[in-house]
């Protein structure tokens, strides 16, 4: 009996690991219907009870949703970030039990344009570093980060390679900030943004813009664009004193 239980436990871990791997790698994307329990039992040559325990564990962890008479489906991850915090996107993605990666698709050093001057509140002629970075959750785009860095106040950014740390992570680890401002709005994805996020043009997106300052002055302006159905913002507060 002990030997049988041991084999069942090993098989349970194998099935669980293989299904988790397919979900977290993106091979089975959100909305994908998993094979029925009876089919999984046949595939793994095991009892349906063993498969049922695996599916129950996957449902408890939030990776799948079980629907009566329809089957089990990969859930749509819902990320949350605090409105009043400067959050780490990698931590957000990993909180969803998904692997994180990023790709810097644009990096240009230039004199501030009229739009840059408005966004960063700098003077004409100021040099800025403009970066565009796509963050991934598994194989799917999680958000697009468009950032301006004031290199007059952060000259180290000129030499940063952003290979191991995204521009945002690098700034958080290297440059102290003393004040921040958030602006939140809903927008429809334009053609280029829709392509970067892998969504249809016109899809509702959540945009979070942030500016930060240090004792030296403006540091960065960043615009994060998330597919609207995959992200939520949370703020916790207490009543003002009377």
H/I helix tally: 7
The CATH topology of the largest domain corresponds to Chorismate lyase
Number of strands: 10
User: What separation lies between the terminal Cα atoms?
Assistant: 68 Å
Uncertain regions: pLDDT < 50 for 5+ in a row? none
The helix/strand series, from N terminus to C terminus, equals HHHEEEHEHEEHEHEEE
**Binned strand content:** 25-35%
How many discrete structural domains? 2
Structural class: alpha+beta
How much helix is in the residues? 25-40%
CATH H-level homologous superfamily name of the largest domain: Chorismate lyase-like
CATH architecture of the largest domain: 3-Layer(aba) Sandwich
Biggest sheet layout: 6 strands, antiparallel
Q: Main sheet: which strands, in order across?
A: 4-5-6-9-8-7
Which CATH C-level class of the largest domain is it? Alpha Beta
Shape: elongated
Write down the overall mean pLDDT. Answer: 87
Roughly how many Å is the radius of gyration? 23 Å
